[in-house]
Amino acid sequence: MRVIRLLTCVFRVDYGGYRQLGHVFDTALW
Asked: What is the DSSP string of 1-30?
């Protein structure tokens, strides 16, 4: 799952405006 974790981090960086969505996405995975 570390790869997905990294992808979520990249997702947050690329889509700073959607940080909340990234947080929810990360929480759903973990």
From this structure: -HHHHHHHHHHHHHTGGGHHHHHHHHHHH-
